[in-house]
Amino acid sequence: MPDVTKTASAVEDAVAAPAPAETAAPAKQEKARSLWGDAWRDLRRNPYFIVSSVLILFLLTVAAFPSIFTSASPTAGDLVKHYLGQPDLGHVGQPDWLGYDGQGRSVYARMIHGTRASIIVGITVTVIVTVVGGLMGMIAGYFGGVWDAILSRITDIFFGIPFLLGAMVVLQSFEDRTVMVVVGALAFLGWTQMARVMRGAVITVKQSDYVHAAKALGAGTTRILFKHILPNAMAPVIVVATISLGGYISAEATLSYLGLGFASPTVSWGVDISTAVDQIRVAPHILLWPSIMLSITVLAFIMLGEAVRNALDPKMR
After folding, report:
1. Rounded to an integer, what distance in angstroms lies between the CA atom of residue 114 and that of residue 120?
2. Rounded to 5 degrees, what angle do the CA atoms 153, 155, 160 make?
3. Please, are residues 303 and 48 in contact by the beta-carbon 8 Å criterion?
4. CA 59/CA 69 separation, integer angstroms
5. 194 near 233, Cβ under 8 Å?
6. How many CA atoms lie within 13 A of 279 on its CB side?
7. Residue 30 and residue 84: Cα distance in Å, rounded?
8. Would you give the DSSP letter of residue 74?
């Protein structure tokens, strides 16, 4: 006969014993990051991106609100008092801080106000060539066949025209070379590279499984192009556009220096560099400061483009 006392004791011990620990819940899976998420994480850690972004933000502020930085007029001159006046580096932010040019105008005021023309040209041309070249490259790459043959041959014809020489020929036919005329000339010849980049990206993306799945589900051509292909083909286009922006600013300054871009009374770094050549021996500061601003601006956009390229290109990681 079983011992009742021992049995009762065993039951009490079982009740008093702590319950076995529950199986730990599986760790929460980390949310998968997209290409753009990884790129943004890398950009925030890239010193080139930080430095270039600060410079570009400063330049955009100067272009949008030049009156914050100087109250002097960039076009008003005084030949009697200020002819080739030397810089007074102690008068920071004053009209005579960087000296005066051959017409008695403040070099500092012209440097500040000249930012607007260069930034407008660079950004506007980049937007136009990205839209036009991107659309042509997307159509050629997606539809292929006759569309690809025709658009590719048109691109090759424009690609064979030297960029600056072609822009000089176009601008020579206009007497009044306003901002829009200069923008139109540069955009007319600058879209070819963007079209080639977009075409190659679309050809690669359209082979993806999600594009074939969208076609199988009955998605229309417009939806496939702008919903599935375009977002995944934009990475190389953004890189090329960012780097090219600095090149368009440099091209505008070059054309203005040659007398085929902007002309007075338009305030531009290229115009100031062109007019400073005659006095470079007696007043080198007239050439120095707009050249420095032009170099900094072009360098800032090139640095930004390189940082974006390194972040978006998996091979660079």
Report:
1. 10
2. 95
3. yes
4. 11
5. no
6. 19
7. 65
8. S
Rounded to whole angstroms, what are the CA distances from 131 to 73, 249, 284? 36, 18, 41
The answer to whether 117 and 262 are in contact (CB under 8 A) is yes
pLDDT for 8 equals 44
- Mean per-residue pLDDT for 125-141? 94
* CA 179 – CA 202 distance, rounded (Å): 33
73 has pLDDT over 80: yes
**Cα within 13 Å of Cα(18), Cβ side:** 3
Share of the chain above pLDDT 70, in %: 87
Amino acid at 75: T
For residues 164 and 176, give the distance between their C-alpha atoms in angstroms, rounded to a whole number: 19
Token pair for 81? 């008092």
Q: Please provide the size of the chain in residues.
A: 317
Q: Whole-prediction pTM value?
A: 0.82
Which of 159, 120, 74, 131 shows the shortest CA–CA distance to 249?
Answer: 120
Task: Find the angle CA(194)-CA(144)-CA(190) to the nearest 5 degrees.
Answer: 15
